Amino acid sequence: MSLLKINALTKSYENGFQALKSVDLEVREGEILALLGPNGAGKTSLISATCGLTNITSGTITVGGYDVVKQPLEARRQISLVPQEIMLEPFEKVITTVRLSRGLFGLAPDEAHIEKTLRRLSLWDKRDTRNMALSGGMKRRVMIAKALSHSPKLLFLDEPSAGVDVELRNDMWRLVEELKEQGVTIILTTHYIEEAEEVADRVAIINHGDILLVEEKADLMARLGKKELIIELQEAAKEIPAGLADLALSLSDDGLKLTYSYDAKQERTGITNLLSHLSDAGMRLKDLQTHTSSLEEIFVSLVHKDEDDNNEKASS
Known about the structure:
- The radius of gyration is 25 Å and the shape is elongated.
- About 30% of the residues are buried.
- It has about 325 residues and is of the alpha/beta class.
- α3 (about 95-105) runs parallel beside α5.
- The protein has helices at about 45-50, 70-75, 95-105, 110-120, 135-150, 165-180, 195-200, 215-225, 270-280, 295-315; strands at about 1-10, 20-30, 30-35, 60-65, 65, 80, 155-160, 185-190, 200-205, 210-215, 225-235, 250, 255-260, 285-290.
- The chain has 2 domains: about 1-220, P-loop containing nucleotide triphosphate hydrolases (Rossmann fold, 3-Layer(aba) Sandwich), CATH 3.40.50; about 225-290, Alpha-Beta Plaits.
């Protein structure tokens, strides 16, 4: 079941710039979606439109069945956002900050929920401390506590790891997993793509206001990820042997390394045949190692392809 549905969403400005171009996206209830894209790709515009922080030009957004334009209060109660920037009242105490945030959604006080949230984020001992006296990492924890104060169904985490220490980052991902187990749907933007690779169920890649793809993380990596056999040679080769010219084989500039790309899922990878040909050609091997493309490499290749396609359209 989809919690968030975005249909033909566009966002344009008076100067003609299109931040979002007919975006379609559905996010399932209880999943973690990693929203990836370079700076200026449209991530912030998409989040702001969903949270009701900016007017949309056309299209529809519904959260839990509520239209964010026609039913803004009902939709907004389903959502919470942890922005990248830390925004806290400096003289307010931690516990008061979280209580006030819950009250802004028109909810009755719930001290048990507030305590549970603060303890979960290791903030209970700091509950009477003023925000201005906290470290940067602790302030980030308070921002998350605020976001969880009204028990949202959809949580946006916008670059949550930016500028935080390793301990908080690890705590945060444990919290993300715990929230998922409780049924909270999470949309995560991050520059730490290895973290998205670790925690996300699906990946959406956005560039120039277009969603390039939305796919199960495992399926995406299986479809686009390359498996490579890297062969180090004892002596530099001037060229690839003629009998191997048809293979997906490349030679490094120094002639000491051959890289062979293959599909590990195929019954025959061609590796045995390759090694036999290398031996016949008198090429002595020094070492062998394998490499699988990471989500970051896949992301970079897709964005570069999109850039090339846009450049071709602009020049034609």
